[in-house]
Write a structure and sequence with these properties.
Length: about 400
């Protein structure tokens, strides 16, 4: 999976490299194993890639009036071909064949495409083509910087951090075509939306607007839904920063149990679900967070997190809380149980590695050291979102589209 970004200036006097750099930082929560930026000017493409987070890229000397950026878990992006440079979030069959056909005839090429993906393709002759497949599992947004720049981004955070204005979502099955004179939209395939539930629950930044939803508001409502489903007698509610804080706020509002800050950040954010290094997965919580003793000592704590994959990071967190004097630790998870892998590129492991797929609630509580544990119900998720047009394959083993 990854964060993708494309910026197109309507006048060649612009250099978009720094816009791409900072916009990519606004998307780095979508994956930080690999990153890259490619720009286009009259001399062709210039590309830099690295196995580092986008904030560590050196864009000095990188110039162009249009460009694309990627950060995520797949090496090789931006992908350079004979026809241009592309960034893709998701799974595509025969990527190079797709880009060749899209270069020749965008609408026909995309009509014949197979996969679950969002894509930004900057052609060698200076056209930018954005597309989101008909399932809409992967997000794609469009915005602008005045009348000077068009911006395509996985999330609105990639637009807003560079001072851009969000315009609208690219709809499932829709293409956006950008050249020097025009921005136009075409319906390529009939929409069959199945928005990624993990993107809503965990992946998207809390300040983003994705799938027609304001992520912060949705997560607060999930916390309120957890309170309706599972009331716990406790002294404080804390959330694992940053993604789970809105859940804890919602639970606190609904129950009246005080919300308090349970952790302070150490260094830059680390998304442990996306970490490729096993050591980082184990100690990731300590690297990014440190518990606040005054919030915890002698308290019955409700600990809210957005999801649970292997249970290792929560186990470490609960150990830290108990070592600082927490009397009880009750865990609430803001998603239904993850019991299966994701075939569409989200970093959800195979079933054998998912703790909820292999152990009972009582067994999980013992393993992670909690007094109790509860997951949001699937119906509760549907209730909060307001519809069932979601991909919940990792929670049900039922997937909306073959790849």
């Amino acid at each position: 999976m990854g964060g993708i970004l494309g910026i197109y200036a309507f006048d060649k006097i612009w250099n978009v490299s720094k816009f791409l750099y900072y916009g990519s930082i606004g998307l780095q929560h979508r994956g930080y194993s690999y990153s890259g930026i490619s720009t286009l000017n009259d001399n062709g493409f210039s590309t830099i890639t690295s196995n580092v987070a986008p904030e560590d890229l050196d864009v000095k000397g990188l110039e162009g009036w249009a460009g694309v950026a990627y950060n995520g878990t797949k090496q090789g992006y931006p992908l350079a071909t004979d026809y241009g440079v592309a960034v893709i979030d998701g799974i595509v069959k025969d990527v190079e064949g797709l880009l060749k056909s899209v270069y020749k005839d965008p609408e026909k090429g995309l009509q014949e495409s197979k996969g679950v993906f969002s894509m930004i393709f900057l052609t060698k002759d200076g056209r930018m083509i954005g597309y989101r497949d008909e399932s809409g599992v992967k997000p794609l947004e469009i915005g602008g910087f005045g009348f000077d720049l068009a911006i395509l981004s996985s999330e609105t955070s990639g637009i807003s951090v560079i001072g851009g204005e969000f315009k609208r979502e690219i709809q499932p099955g829709e293409m956006v075509y950008i050249d020097t004179y025009n921005v136009s939209y075409s319906r390529i395939k009939d929409p069959k939306p199945r928005y990624c539930s993990i993107d809503i629950i965990y992946q998207s930044r809390i300040d983003s607007h994705v799938f027609g939803l304001d992520i912060y508001d949705v997560r607060v409502k999930i916390g309120e839904q957890l309170a309706e489903e599972k009331r716990i007698d406790a002294d404080v509610v804390i959330g694992v920063p940053d993604t789970a804080i809105p859940y804890a706020i919602g639970y606190s509002r609904k129950t009246g149990i005080p919300f308090t800050l349970g952790f302070t950040r150490t260094g830059s954010p680390i998304r442990t679900m996306l970490a490729s290094d096993d050591f980082l997965k184990v100690i990731g919580v300590q690297l990014k967070l440190n518990p606040i003793k005054a919030s915890i000592k002698g308290k019955r704590v409700i600990l809210v997190d957005d999801s649970m994959v292997t249970g290792r990071t929560l186990k470490n967190t609960i150990f830290s809380l108990r070592s600082l004097g927490a009397k009880e630790v009750h865990v609430l998870i803001g998603s239904p149980k993850l019991i299966s892998y994701c075939p569409y590129g989200m970093e959800v492991p195979e079933e054998k590695d998912l703790i909820a797929a292999n152990l009972s609630d009582e067994e999980i509580s013992k393993v992670i050291g909690a007094d109790s544990i509860y997951w949001l119900s699937l119906e509760g998720l549907y209730k909060v979102i307001g519809h069932k047009s979601l991909c919940v394959g990792c929670m049900t083993k039922s997937y909306p589209k073959e790849v």
